[in-house]
Amino acid sequence: WVSMATALANPLPQSKLVGPGEVEKAGLIADDLIRQANQLEPLVSQKLIEIVNTANGKLEGFDFRIKSKNSLHRKILSLTIEEREERVSQWHKGNISAHKSLQSLEEIVDRFIRDVLRYTVIFPLENYTESTEKTFEVLESNNIKKKNVRNYWEEGDEYQGLNSNFIYSGGKNPVCIEIQFHTQESFQNKTDSHEIYERFRVELDPAKKIEIHKEAVLFCADVKIPPNVLRIPVLTSKPSPITAQFVAFTVRRRAEEVDKILTPLLIDMFGDAVAKLGLEDRHRLKSESKIEHRIVQLAKENPKEKLESLGKQIQDTVRYTILFSVENYTEKIVDSVERLREKSIDIVGFENWWDESLEHHELLQGIETVFTFDGTKFEIQFHTPESYEVKEEKLDDLVDQLNLAKNDEEKTAIFEKMKDLWTNVPVPLGSPSLTLPFTRKIEEGGL
C-alpha cells in the first residue's frame, strides 16, 4: 500500500519521445540496477563502517542507502525525456550529428544514473581530508574506482561538501555508487538550507530571486572548511543546483532585456520577413530550464571555468527566424548583415546548411548565424518559405521516429524520408558557397 501511494503521488513522466514499451523497459532496468546494488551493498557498507569507526565519523541516512524502485524508474524516464528534447532542439538548429548523441535507455542510464547505491559520510573537521582520501584508497583496493569527484569546499557559493561517484566492475555489470562527504556542520547546513533552496526554486520575481541567492551564500559562509581539503582534485565538475539555476536565471533575465531592444529593431528592419512563429516567446527566448541544462553540460566539459563565463557562451538564448524568397535570398542575407553592423550588431558565427546534392545535409537546409549585441549573443536562422515549412511543419514527426528507432536499418530508412522532404525545396542561387567574410560584392559572376 505504501508503494502504491508513493506511485500515485509521484506519477511516471510521460512524453511522445518515450515509446510505450520503453516505460516498461525502464522499470525492468530499474529492477536490475537495484538487484545489482543489493549484491554490492554488503561489501561497500562494511568498508565504509570500518573507515568511519576508525575516524570517529558516522553514516547519515544509512537506512536509505538503496534508491527506491519508483524513484529510480521516474528518474530514468525524466532523464530520457530531457536528453531527447535537447537532441530534437539541436536537430532544429541544424546539428546534423545530433543523432549520434544519447538515445537508448541503456546509454542514458550508463551516463547519468549514479545514485542507486548512495551514502552520506560524516567525518570530524580535523581529520576530514585524510579520512576522505583514505576512503578513496580503501575503495580502490576493492576494485571500486573513482569516476567523478566534485569538491565544493571553496568559499563563495551556497554549498559546502564533497560529492563523488564510484564504479564497481568486479561483477557481471558495472555498478555505480554515490558518496557525499560532509562534516557535521556542513551536513546540518545542507539540511537547513533546503527551505532556502525551495523558496529560490519557486520564486518568479527577479529582484527577490537575487536576494534569496545572496541569502543562501551568506547562510553557508560560516561553515568551517576542513584543513587542506582543496588538495583533493576535481575530476569533473557539476555545479550545485542552486548555483546552476541562479546563473541560468541571470542569463535568461539578460536575454529578456536584450530582447526588448532587438525584437522591435528586427521587426522595423525586416517587417513580415521575421517569421511569426519565431516571435512567440517560447520560440524566441530559450527557457530557463534549457539554459540550466546547457550550463551543466558546459561545466562538465570545462571544469575550471566559472559558470558566469559559461553562461555567456550560450549562443541562442534569444533566437529569430527570418524568411527571404528564393529569388533574392542570398543577396538579402548579405544586405542584412551589413544593416545589422550599422546598428553595432556584429556577426560572430555562421553555419551554411545549403547543399544541392543533399549528400551531407539531409536534415536541414538554411543558414544559421550568431550575432552579438551589447555583450549578449543571439541567433538568427535565415530560411526561404519552402525550407522553413519543411523544418517547422514536416520534419518533427520524422525526428520523433528517429528518437525511437531500434536499429541502424530503421534510422537509414528515416534518413531517406528526410532527404525526400528536402528534394523539392529549391536552393537559392549562390547560397551553398556563401561564407564569411562576405560583402555586397560577390565575385565569380555576382549573385
Give the C-alpha Rg: 26 Å
Average residue pLDDT = 84
Distance between the termini: 72 Å
Helix fraction? Answer: 40-55%
Q: Structural class of the helices, strands and pairings? A: alpha+beta
Low-pLDDT sequence parts: 1-9, 439-447
Outline? globular
Count of alpha and pi helical runs? 16
> Strand order across the biggest sheet?
1-2-5-4-3
Largest sheet: 5 strands, mixed
Q: Beta-strand level of the residues, as a percent range?
A: 5-15%
List SSEs in N-to-C order: HHEHHEHEEEHHHHHHHEHEEEHHH
Count of distinct strands: 9
Task: Walk me through what this model shows.
With 447 residues, the protein is of the alpha+beta class. The protein is 51% helix and 13% strand. The protein contains 16 helices and nine strands. It has helices at residues 2-9, 20-54, 69-92, 105-112, 128-141, 184-192, 194-202, 206-221, 241-270, 281-284, 288-301, 307-313, 329-342, 385-394, 396-403, 408-423; strands at 58-60, 117-122, 144-151, 162-168, 175-182, 319-323, 346-352, 367-373, 376-383. The strands form two sheets. A five-stranded mixed β-sheet has the order 1-2-5-4-3. Strands 6-9-8-7 form a four-stranded mixed β-sheet. The longest helix is centred in the first third of the chain and has 35 residues, at 20-54. It is globular, with a radius of gyration of 26 Å. The relative contact order is 0.09. The model is unreliable at 1-9 and 439-447 (pLDDT under 50).
